Amino acid sequence: MVCLPSTALGVPDKAEQTLIEKGRYLSRAANCYSCHKSPQGGPYTGGVGFETPFGTIYSTNITSDVETGIGSYSEADFDQAVRHGYSSIRGYLYAAMPFNSYRDMSDDDVKALWAYFKNLPAIRYEVPENQMTFPANIRLGLFFWNALFLEESSFVEDTSRTPAWNRGRYLATALGHCGECHTPRNLFMAPQTDSVFEGNILEGWLASNLTVEGLTAQGWNKADMIRYLKYGHSRQGAPSASMHSVVHDSTSYLTNKDLDSMATYLLSTDTQKLESKPYPVLTTKDKQDPGYHLYAQHCAGCHGANGQGAPPSVPSMQGNSSNTLPDPYASVTFVLRGLPDRHPQINKNSQGMPGFVDMLSAAEVAELVTFMRRVWGEQTQPVSIAEVERIVEQLRDDNWLYRHSEH
Ligand code: HEC
Ligand code: HEC
Ligand code: HEC
């Protein structure tokens, strides 16, 4: 059958419409939205600033506007940008655009994404100029970066695993690009291929270990993971910092089947039975601990006298992943920095949390965190004052102490 290109007639035909819908879903699964939404303009007009050690990079306008967007792109240009990090407009792209992960996307999925994006209404919006320091401001330099670090896709189905596990791996790596934040980076900001998902510090927050070992040590099971990715709360706590927008703009849009697959992959299990440990209850002796006094005075008003919280708006401290991690970094940074007020879509009643850096001394933070981690996280190694002071210094030096991420 010979068809006229549907867009030539102005109205997409049924097949094209199905492809556009698929592309819309994939744009959520790959979270194009979160990085390309504009603080001022509309969706996909770009302008979100990403701070890197080399300067600030702004996401671009990817609506179909010819002058300020990608209206001049062909399908091949789109593929080049998304999977290979090369823009026909700008040249080599900075890896703030996660083409490192997207290179593993299937041909069919790139096609569907293109159908969606080329049909987006054109919005004229000029994004700010990148502010890069020499020599990173020279895009040609990126050619060498890409040549050094960007490997060809070697993504193949693992036939020893179920289709659900394979789908989950594709969702988490090629589309969801979880590793862009959860895999540590080298000095050139390239992901370290030998430590995939092992955890990474990002804007002063810990994007923790997502390996099977890391997750199971913290008691995650499939039901927890699905709830966390769908609704933004779980027994292990709530998504904060940049993870909030991952859930809010991306994973909460996934079908239950895809969420099940992602959890199957992350926990490397097709059959895991649900077994939840009962929450620890505070004893009278625990309540005499000086750490508990600090907790009762500063935290219990929101998180409850027994650390039970008020989920989903205030996370529980009992078994909270910040308390069960071997490294106290996450617990300490949450207390020092607090958390901003959340969008009402997920946590309707959340008022956010104040930062305690000026309210508590390093000794008090150490005492409080040591207590919480012992009673609610089974972590008996005390947190030292020196460790708290080191984290305060580091946050201050990196300018994250009184600031949260803007996107
Ligand atoms: C983690 C943030 C992030 C995500 C997720 C992201 N992008 Fe980008 N994207 C960027 C940034 C930043 C740039 C600009 C890079 C530069 O200037 O070198 C960019 C550039 C682009 C460009 C080049 C535009 C031009 O002007 O030539 C295209 C096309 C693009 N992105 C499409 C997408 C699509 C499609 C998705 C989802 C599949 C996506 N992006 C997801 C951050 C992101
Ligand atoms: C833009 C960066 C970013 C991306 C992309 C990202 N994460 Fe995260 N993630 C974080 C940060 C930062 C935290 C820590 C915030 C917190 O503890 O609330 C986090 C925390 C988590 C946690 C909670 C871990 C714990 O110990 O409580 C899980 C589970 C998680 N991410 C899963 C994922 C999955 C699955 C993906 C891919 C679909 C993903 N993340 C993609 C930044 C990211
Ligand atoms: C005004 C209410 C309030 C007070 C006081 C408060 N918190 Fe919070 N806390 C919250 C809210 C709300 C969140 C979740 C924010 C979000 O959605 O990201 C939170 C998040 C946290 C988290 C991160 C948990 C997770 O799952 O991501 C930790 C840890 C925490 N609080 C510990 C404390 C400690 C310790 C204190 C006392 C020093 C304290 N909070 C005081 C309201 C409060």
Roughly how much helix do the residues carry, as a percent range? Answer: 40-55%
Q: Widest sheet: strand order?
A: 1-2-5
User: Would you list the SSEs in sequence order as H and E?
Assistant: HHEEHEEHHEHHHEEHHHHHHHHHH
From the coordinates shown, what is the CATH architecture of the largest domain? Orthogonal Bundle
The total domain count is: 3
Question: Which shape, going by the Cα principal axes?
Answer: globular
Structural class: mainly alpha
**Which ions, cofactors or small ligands are bound in this entry?**
heme C
Tell me the total number of β-strands.
7
Question: Tally the helices: what do you get?
Answer: 18
Main sheet overview: 3 strands, antiparallel
- Rounded mean pLDDT is 88
CATH homologous superfamily caption of the largest domain? Cytochrome c-like domain
Describe the structure.
- With 407 residues, the protein is mainly alpha-helical.
- The protein has three domains: 7-148, Orthogonal Bundle (Cytochrome Bc1 Complex, Chain D, domain 2); 163-266, no CATH class; 286-397, Cytochrome Bc1 Complex, Chain D, domain 2 (Orthogonal Bundle), CATH 1.10.760.10.
- Helices cover 41% and strands 5% of the residues.
- The chain contains 18 helices and seven strands.
- The strands form three sheets. A three-stranded antiparallel sheet has the order 1-2-5, with no helix packed on it. Strands 3-4 form a two-stranded antiparallel ribbon. It has a two-stranded antiparallel sheet with strand order 6-7.
- A hairpin with a 2-residue loop joins β1 (49-52) and β2.
- α13 crosses α17 (362-377) and α16 crosses α17.
- Bound molecules: heme C (HEC) (3 copies).
- One heme C (HEC) is lined by residues 27, 30-32, 35-36, 50, 57, 59-60, 62, 70, 81-82, 87, 89-90, 93-94, 96-98, 102, 113, 117.
